[in-house]
Amino acid sequence: MTKETVKKPGDPGFSLVEILIVLALAAALAAISIPIISSSLRNMQLAADAQNISSTLSAARLKAKSTMTPYRISFDLGSNRWSLEKFNPNNGQFELEQAVNQLSSGLAGSGIRFMEKSESHPGIFPSESSGTITFNTRGIPVDINNTPTSNNIVYISKSGSDYAISTTLTGNVQVWKNNKGRWEAQ
After folding, report:
1. What are the two backbone dihedrals, phi and then psi, of residue 58, each rounded to the nearest 5 degrees?
2. Is the CA virtual torsion 81, 72, 162, 32 positive or negative?
3. Does the pTM of the predicted model rise above 0.90?
4. Residue 125, SS3 per DSSP
5. What CA–CA distance (Å, rounded) separates 80 from 151?
Protein backbone atom coordinates (compact mmCIF):
# COMPACT_ATOMS: atom_id res chain seq x y z
CA MET A 1 0.00 0.00 0.00
CA THR A 2 1.23 3.42 -0.84
CA LYS A 3 0.08 6.68 0.52
CA GLU A 4 -0.19 9.68 -1.69
CA THR A 5 0.37 13.06 -0.17
CA VAL A 6 -1.56 15.87 -1.62
CA LYS A 7 -0.84 19.47 -0.67
CA LYS A 8 -3.80 21.14 0.88
CA PRO A 9 -4.33 24.90 0.83
CA GLY A 10 -3.58 25.28 4.57
CA ASP A 11 -0.24 23.37 4.54
CA PRO A 12 2.86 25.33 5.57
CA GLY A 13 5.33 26.46 2.86
CA PHE A 14 7.13 29.52 1.58
CA SER A 15 5.24 32.21 -0.19
CA LEU A 16 6.64 34.20 -3.09
CA VAL A 17 6.94 37.27 -0.86
CA GLU A 18 9.02 35.35 1.70
CA ILE A 19 11.36 34.04 -0.98
CA LEU A 20 11.80 37.55 -2.42
CA ILE A 21 12.65 38.93 1.03
CA VAL A 22 15.33 36.27 1.54
CA LEU A 23 16.80 37.00 -1.92
CA ALA A 24 16.85 40.75 -1.19
CA LEU A 25 18.70 40.15 2.10
CA ALA A 26 21.23 37.89 0.37
CA ALA A 27 21.84 40.54 -2.31
CA ALA A 28 22.33 43.24 0.36
CA LEU A 29 24.86 41.07 2.25
CA ALA A 30 26.73 40.37 -0.99
CA ALA A 31 26.85 44.08 -1.84
CA ILE A 32 28.37 44.84 1.55
CA SER A 33 30.83 41.93 1.73
CA ILE A 34 32.28 41.92 -1.82
CA PRO A 35 34.24 45.21 -1.42
CA ILE A 36 35.54 44.08 1.97
CA ILE A 37 36.66 40.73 0.57
CA SER A 38 38.26 42.40 -2.47
CA SER A 39 40.23 44.78 -0.25
CA SER A 40 41.39 41.89 1.93
CA LEU A 41 42.52 39.93 -1.12
CA ARG A 42 44.48 42.94 -2.43
CA ASN A 43 46.18 43.30 0.98
CA MET A 44 47.07 39.60 0.89
CA GLN A 45 48.51 40.08 -2.62
CA LEU A 46 50.65 42.96 -1.34
CA ALA A 47 51.98 40.80 1.52
CA ALA A 48 52.59 37.93 -0.92
CA ASP A 49 54.53 40.23 -3.28
CA ALA A 50 56.71 41.40 -0.38
CA GLN A 51 57.35 37.77 0.56
CA ASN A 52 58.15 36.83 -3.07
CA ILE A 53 60.75 39.60 -3.30
CA SER A 54 62.18 38.53 0.07
CA SER A 55 62.41 34.90 -1.10
CA THR A 56 64.14 35.94 -4.34
CA LEU A 57 66.67 37.99 -2.36
CA SER A 58 67.32 35.08 0.00
CA ALA A 59 67.75 32.73 -2.97
CA ALA A 60 70.22 35.16 -4.60
CA ARG A 61 72.23 35.34 -1.41
CA LEU A 62 72.36 31.54 -1.03
CA LYS A 63 73.25 31.02 -4.71
CA ALA A 64 76.03 33.60 -4.48
CA LYS A 65 77.53 31.82 -1.45
CA SER A 66 77.12 28.28 -2.77
CA THR A 67 78.41 28.94 -6.30
CA MET A 68 80.98 31.61 -5.35
CA THR A 69 79.43 33.80 -8.06
CA PRO A 70 77.91 37.28 -7.59
CA TYR A 71 74.14 37.48 -7.94
CA ARG A 72 71.84 40.46 -7.96
CA ILE A 73 68.20 41.41 -8.06
CA SER A 74 67.40 44.21 -10.51
CA PHE A 75 64.26 46.25 -9.88
CA ASP A 76 62.50 48.06 -12.72
CA LEU A 77 60.57 50.43 -10.48
CA GLY A 78 58.63 52.03 -13.34
CA SER A 79 57.21 48.80 -14.74
CA ASN A 80 56.83 46.97 -11.39
CA ARG A 81 59.17 44.12 -12.37
CA TRP A 82 62.22 42.49 -10.84
CA SER A 83 64.65 39.83 -11.99
CA LEU A 84 67.32 37.54 -10.59
CA GLU A 85 70.64 37.86 -12.41
CA LYS A 86 73.91 35.91 -12.26
CA PHE A 87 77.35 37.36 -13.00
CA ASN A 88 79.04 35.87 -16.06
CA PRO A 89 82.83 36.18 -15.62
CA ASN A 90 83.41 35.47 -19.33
CA ASN A 91 81.83 38.72 -20.46
CA GLY A 92 81.81 40.67 -17.17
CA GLN A 93 78.00 41.13 -17.31
CA PHE A 94 75.06 40.07 -15.20
CA GLU A 95 72.70 37.76 -17.10
CA LEU A 96 69.10 36.81 -16.44
CA GLU A 97 68.93 33.69 -14.26
CA GLN A 98 65.17 33.09 -14.35
CA ALA A 99 62.01 34.63 -15.79
CA VAL A 100 61.26 38.26 -14.96
CA ASN A 101 58.81 38.64 -12.06
CA GLN A 102 56.03 41.19 -11.87
CA LEU A 103 54.05 42.60 -8.96
CA SER A 104 50.47 41.32 -8.68
CA SER A 105 47.99 42.92 -11.01
CA GLY A 106 44.96 40.70 -10.39
CA LEU A 107 41.62 41.75 -8.95
CA ALA A 108 40.84 44.45 -11.49
CA GLY A 109 44.20 46.19 -11.24
CA SER A 110 45.24 45.72 -7.64
CA GLY A 111 47.24 48.95 -7.63
CA ILE A 112 50.36 47.31 -6.17
CA ARG A 113 53.48 49.17 -7.31
CA PHE A 114 57.09 49.85 -6.46
CA MET A 115 57.72 53.17 -4.75
CA GLU A 116 60.80 55.09 -5.82
CA LYS A 117 60.82 56.88 -2.47
CA SER A 118 59.12 56.46 0.90
CA GLU A 119 58.25 59.52 2.98
CA SER A 120 58.74 57.43 6.11
CA HIS A 121 61.21 54.57 6.20
CA PRO A 122 62.26 51.91 8.70
CA GLY A 123 65.15 52.75 10.99
CA ILE A 124 68.49 53.47 9.41
CA PHE A 125 67.50 52.56 5.86
CA PRO A 126 67.43 55.11 3.04
CA SER A 127 64.13 56.56 1.85
CA GLU A 128 64.81 55.69 -1.80
CA SER A 129 64.32 52.22 -3.25
CA SER A 130 67.39 50.43 -4.54
CA GLY A 131 67.57 49.81 -8.29
CA THR A 132 69.65 46.69 -7.69
CA ILE A 133 70.70 44.62 -4.71
CA THR A 134 73.93 42.73 -5.36
CA PHE A 135 75.43 39.89 -3.32
CA ASN A 136 79.15 39.13 -3.60
CA THR A 137 80.63 35.61 -3.63
CA ARG A 138 80.24 35.39 0.17
CA GLY A 139 76.55 36.39 0.13
CA ILE A 140 77.24 39.88 1.48
CA PRO A 141 75.29 42.78 -0.06
CA VAL A 142 77.66 45.18 -1.82
CA ASP A 143 77.42 48.54 -3.56
CA ILE A 144 78.64 49.43 -7.04
CA ASN A 145 82.25 49.61 -5.74
CA ASN A 146 81.96 46.09 -4.27
CA THR A 147 81.98 47.57 -0.75
CA PRO A 148 79.68 45.86 1.79
CA THR A 149 76.57 47.94 2.43
CA SER A 150 73.35 47.79 4.38
CA ASN A 151 71.71 50.56 2.31
CA ASN A 152 69.59 48.11 0.31
CA ILE A 153 65.84 48.43 0.46
CA VAL A 154 62.89 48.36 -1.90
CA TYR A 155 59.41 49.73 -1.14
CA ILE A 156 56.09 48.44 -2.48
CA SER A 157 52.71 50.02 -1.91
CA LYS A 158 48.99 49.71 -2.52
CA SER A 159 47.05 52.90 -1.80
CA GLY A 160 48.47 53.67 1.62
CA SER A 161 49.57 50.17 2.62
CA ASP A 162 53.36 50.01 2.40
CA TYR A 163 55.90 47.22 2.70
CA ALA A 164 59.69 47.41 2.59
CA ILE A 165 62.15 44.60 1.93
CA SER A 166 65.70 45.23 3.19
CA THR A 167 69.02 43.45 3.51
CA THR A 168 71.34 43.85 6.46
CA LEU A 169 75.11 44.09 6.28
CA THR A 170 75.33 40.36 6.96
CA GLY A 171 72.92 39.62 4.10
CA ASN A 172 69.85 38.80 6.13
CA VAL A 173 66.62 39.74 4.38
CA GLN A 174 63.86 41.46 6.37
CA VAL A 175 60.28 42.38 5.45
CA TRP A 176 58.80 45.50 7.05
CA LYS A 177 55.20 46.74 7.17
CA ASN A 178 54.16 50.34 7.70
CA ASN A 179 51.46 50.24 10.36
CA LYS A 180 49.99 53.75 10.68
CA GLY A 181 53.33 55.49 10.26
CA ARG A 182 55.32 52.99 12.35
CA TRP A 183 57.44 50.39 10.57
CA GLU A 184 57.27 46.88 12.06
CA ALA A 185 59.42 43.90 11.16
CA GLN A 186 57.34 41.01 9.91
Report:
1. -65, -40
2. positive
3. no
4. coil
5. 21
